[in-house]
Write a structure and sequence with these properties.
The chain is mainly β and 162 residues long. The chain has strands spanning 2-7, 10-15, 19-24, 44-53, 59-69, 76-82, 91-97, 101-103, 121-122, 132-134, 144-147, 156-157. The chain folds into two domains: 1-32, no CATH class; 33-157, no CATH class.
């Protein structure tokens, strides 16, 4: 273990060859803060990316966790994306905010495992406006993405055809 930097209330050090630790000398655990100027926020607040570094120095992104603004623009949300297979880009698998926890099932997902492993009920979030898709009027109207919370009209059944 090597201590590489001190700061008020703690220090940063290394553990072995490939780990960095942030140590608090106060009773409060250390935090890592990613911040963006409030006037510059679109939707993303910051992210942690997990990558495999290639010999040529490029990175192959495997997973990331991102802080986002929730659709109401007042609270936070958490977005998790994973790479489904080698050579494919990461895609959202989980989105959580104060009103919803949405697990995403890829529309086109070859070789992701048996259909029995897929969730049976899902909510759909539109990429265009980040709102949930709704079957208004108990499904008698056209689908529309205009909701912030998941309820019966924003819940859809997955029917797997094998």
């Amino acid at each position: 273990m090597a201590r590489i930097a001190d700061f008020d209330g703690g220090w940063i050090g290394t553990i072995g060859d490939n780990e960095i630790e942030i140590v608090s000398t106060m009773p409060d655990p250390p935090k890592v803060r990613l911040a963006v100027d409030a006037a510059s926020i679109e939707s993303n607040l910051g992210a942690v990316s997990f990558n495999a570094r290639r010999p040529d120095g490029t990175h192959d992104e495997i997973a990331y966790v991102m802080g986002r603004m929730a659709p109401n623009r007042e609270s936070g949300a958490l977005y998790v994306a994973l790479r489904p297979a080698p050579g494919m880009p990461c895609r959202e698998v989980l989105y959580m905010d104060n009103g919803a926890i949405v697990s995403h099932v890829p529309i086109y997902a070859p070789n992701l495992g048996p259909a029995s492993s897929y969730p049976r009920k899902i909510a759909l979030r539109a990429m265009a406006n980040n709102k949930l898709v709704c079957a208004e009027n108990a499904g008698n109207n056209s689908l529309i993405a205009n909701r912030y919370d998941v309820g019966p009209w924003e819940t859809f059944e997955v029917i797997v055809i094998e």
